Amino acid sequence: MRLNRIRKLFALAADQEGTPEGDAAARVARRLLHDHDERLSALPPDQRAEADPFQRRALLLGGSEQWRCRLLGIVARHCECVASWRSALGRGSLYGRESSVEVAEYLYVLLSRDLTRSRAMRRMQLADCSPSTRAAALNDFCQSAVLAVEVRCAELRAEEPQACTALVRTRSRGLWNWMQDQGMGLKKEPPFSYSFDAEGWREGHRLKLLEGIRG
């Protein structure tokens, strides 16, 4: 019941991003998640697993661009989850503890929405380019922004290994065993190709990463 409320608050925070209502919903969700985390840590391991079970959460990526898949994978790893996707369909899945999946989904929605807006502005700047040149430039821009997010996530975990948030607690223990028991198997895709884009790299550092995960 508490996790269901947390999910609704995160959904409200994402829908009302940048408004007083959205900020308040995010603060309450993070506080409830912190309280939930503290209660879990006081439970025996068997009860802890029952109170915060593993789950698979299907979600729409917002498009079929490859950078969305890569961003989902980065967010999933940062939140101690696993991600899978079918890029051609614009669909993905998150696997992990229920509370961790809540944060991963929320963080992905915020980052992908912001980068989609930035991509639209970049597209306007490239209006005079040929379609093929524009498509390649937009891919480089977005992939470089996602690379910046990946670096920022790594820096955050290195700087705050003991922070009391769901993002930096080790909750994935047993996840792969659970996935195998459920008959889930994942195949690795080849690396996404792109050329480094300085403006995309800067944009990745401007995305609201810390605001989305810290109170």
Provide structural commentary:
The protein has a 3-stranded antiparallel beta sheet with strand order 1-3-2. It has 215 residues and is mainly α. Residues 162-169 have low confidence and may be disordered. Helices cover 62% and strands 9% of the residues. A hairpin with a 4-residue loop joins strand 2 and strand 3.
Short key terms for the protein model shown above:
single chain; 215 residues; mainly alpha; 3-stranded antiparallel β-sheet; 9% strand; globular
Which helices and strands appear, and what pairs or packs with what?
Blueprint: H1 2-15, H2 20-41, H3 45-51, E1 54-60, H4 66-78, E2 82-86, E3 91-97, H5 98-125, H6 131-159, H7 175-181, H8 198-206, H9 209-213
Antiparallel strand pairs: 1-3, 2-3
Short summary:
The protein is mostly helical and 215 residues long.
> How confident overall, as mean pLDDT?
81
Tell me the fraction of residues in β-strands, as a range: 5-15%
Number of helices: 9
Radius of gyration: 18 Å
Order of strands across the main sheet: 1-3-2
Percent in helix: 55-70%
Query: Spans of 5+ residues with little confidence (pLDDT < 50)?
Result: 162-169
- Secondary-structure element order, as H and E? HHHEHEEHHHHH
* Termini Cα gap: 22 Å
Shape: globular
Q: Which structural class should the secondary elements be placed in?
A: mainly alpha
Q: Main beta sheet: strand number and arrangement?
A: 3 strands, antiparallel
